[in-house]
Amino acid sequence: MSEIRYTSDLKDEQWSVIEPLFGPPPKTGRPRDYSYREIMNAVFYVVKTGCQWRNLPKDLPPWSVVYTYYRNWVLTGFWVKLHGFLHQELRFAAGRKLSPTAGIIDSQTVKSTECSEVRGFDAAKKINGCKRHLVVDVLGLVLMAYVTAANVQDRDAAPHALAGAFGAFSTLQLIWADSGYAGQLVKWVLEKFRRTLEIVKPAPSQKGFQVQPKRWIVERTFGWLGRSRRLSKHYERKTDTAEALVYISMSQLMLRRLRK
After folding, report:
1. pLDDT per residue over 3-53, tens digit each?
2. Please, where in the chain does CATH 3.30.420.10 lie?
3. Domain 97-233: what homologous superfamily?
4. Of residues 57, 22, 50, 56, the one with CA closest to residue 36
């Protein structure tokens, strides 16, 4: 059994779940200096603690090595592949069909640093930063993540997020959303994809805050992401790395659930 130094380290039973995705070590060439497991431990450490890459602890692989793997895996789509694999594993463990039929869409505005390529002012939230647009299933697991500047309206970003979700999950038939997505978007989803976008509206007699049916699921997902300190603020320069961090954070959560 490997020593667990940090709470973000992969336990043996967790590593056994994802180890097959990395394939067997090559029979020729220079032996690896650092194992894939150690690289994953370092990436998970950054996402969980909010640590800067250059300030990785010395008992983890050098930050330059870790970041190179992390960035290459962003470009090759490995993080999305890992997330998709764990998503199916967890749905199966929960007694659900591997591919969902219903989902929920919503966005979260977060402050960003001045280095971000996309940055805007959300007048409703009074926040200068970016927006994370998520489509999740009824378990709250992410199906699609899309990052934009904060001044992009939900209904303007939704076509990209929904098209990605429908493309990845052909079984999706119904999406719930709040009133911010009402209007032409409902008709667009029906005409282009033959799917249903249902707007969840509060009861006419409602006074004050009340939990809306189905919509609370995606709000809980945003709460889960908040446990990863790297996601407490938008520190990333590029949107593809920001989206990858959502998938990495959710992968950590799903691994914990699969192998408690």
Report:
1. 778 999 999 999 999 999 998 777 777 888 899 999 999 999 999 999 999
2. 97-233
3. Ribonuclease H-like superfamily/Ribonuclease H (3.30.420.10)
4. 22
**Amino acid identity, position 205:** S
Tokens of 61: 């692989």
Structure tokens at 207: 């006074």
Is 121 in contact with 127 (CB distance < 8 Å)?
A: yes
Task: Write down the pTM of the prediction.
Answer: 0.93
Let me know: does 175 contact 106? Beta carbons within 8 Å.
no
